[in-house]
Amino acid sequence: MTAAGPGGSTIATPEFVLALREHIGHELLWMPGVTALVLDRSRTRMLAVRRTDDGAWTPVTGIIDPGEEPAVAGVREVAEEAGIACRALRLLDVRTLPPITYPNGDRAQYLDLCFLCEADEDAVPFPADGENSEARWFPVDEPPPMNERFMRQLAMALEDDAETRFRR
Length: 168
Prior knowledge:
It holds the Pfam family NUDIX. The chain is α+β, with helices and mostly antiparallel strands.
């Protein structure tokens, strides 16, 4: 079974979500999600992936597994979706995303934890799973078209301010 993740992509639904859905049906499910905003070491390029479901360019996003550390989830998602290794440096942004309804009727709402991650200059991304049709580097001053949330998170990463952002 597949569903859309916090970035809007079609993703393989984790087993723990399928088990929960057996009990709650289509009711709203609160989910922890992660966004990995990956820059190269020189801070001149950002990693973006093109989603297979809607063609949108986004940073790597995904669902945090039960018991998994959020930063570890971000690094894992980058390896799974873009085929490269990275290091999580710091938490950039924490926000609650609006509720969504998937085509099958399932409803979810995500708590998004956005991490600034760093990858080596020579890392060559590729669409490592079926969730994305492309994965590549973009100059940070010429990012792909992305929604306002991702553009704001990129701006936060480039500020290099150690303060985590959250809504008050």
